[in-house]
Specification:
Elements: H1 7-13, E1 22-23, E2 29-34, H2 48-67, E3 71-76, E4 80-81, E5 90-100, E6 104-114, E7 121-133, E8 146-147, H3 151-180
Parallel strand pairs: 1-8
Antiparallel strand pairs: 2-5, 3-7, 4-7, 5-6, 6-7
The structure holds coenzyme A (COA).
């Protein structure tokens, strides 16, 4: 069956990566999942970890679609849960690539629920994640740039660049603090 591929075949698929810059609309990803008993915690609400997993899944799909190569999650910025999610809710996760630098991409994710059957819609969480493209040996590898087409996309790209600077500053400060503590 040719739809089952070996690891080597899959690596070959990702070895000639097209680095042509592309718009974020090409990789936008929407996941809709009905919340069921299997998603619940002991209090009967949907487990926060279930939502975080779906966030990582949607963002990972958007990152792979944009980069057209293997990717890993490098970091996830803080994520607040704004409202509880109940069994029976329809959860929708929307992931968009905001910007790509050399080997990394920032993806923003927004989680909404629709309370079924009332139809009430609520924003329940948002997060920013960074993914890194990898070559076949698992080393960071170049990814395509993002073309911001609309005014909103240009805003998102500019904000992503500010967050990237903040992450790099924090990473450097933590590394220095660790060196100082030795
Ligand atoms: C993410 C990872 C590949 C980065 O490797 P590294 O050796 O630190 O690579 P580099 O320092 O060359 O950085 C590569 C890119 O990642 C970015 N990066 C690395 N760590 C980061 C972090 N904590 N936050 C944000 N970006 C980060 C760098 O800014 C760089 O981006 P750029 O090329 O666009 O400028 C590596 O740390 C890793 O494999 N981590 C484990 C990932 C994982 O297992 N995830 C969960 C399962 S998918």
């Amino acid at each position: 069956m040719d739809f089952i591929r070996s690891r080597e075949d899959r690596d070959d698929l990702y070895s000639n990566v097209d680095l042509t810059p592309r718009p974020t609309s090409e990789s936008e990803t929407l996941l809709s999942v009905a919340m069921e008993i299997e998603h619940a915690n002991n209090s009967g609400y949907v487990h926060g970890g279930t939502i975080m997993r779906l966030v990582d899944t949607a963002a990972g799909i958007a990152a792979i679609k944009h980069a057209r190569r293997r990717v890993v999650t490098a970091t996830m910025d803080e994520m607040s849960f704004l409202a509880p999610v109940y069994i029976g809710d329809l959860l929708t996760v929307r992931a968009r690539v905001n910007d790509a630098h050399h080997t990394s991409m920032e993806i923003s994710v927004r989680v909404d629920v629709e309370r079924i059957p009332s139809g009430e819609k609520l924003h329940v969480a948002s997060a920013h994640l960074v993914y890194v493209g990898l070559d076949r040996d698992g080393r960071p590898a170049e990814v395509a740039k993002v073309i911001a087409v609309t005014e909103e996309e240009r805003h998102r790209q500019a904000e992503a660049r500010v967050r990237r600077e903040q992450r790099l500053l924090r990473k450097r400060a933590l590394a220095e603090a660790l060196r100082g503590g030795q």
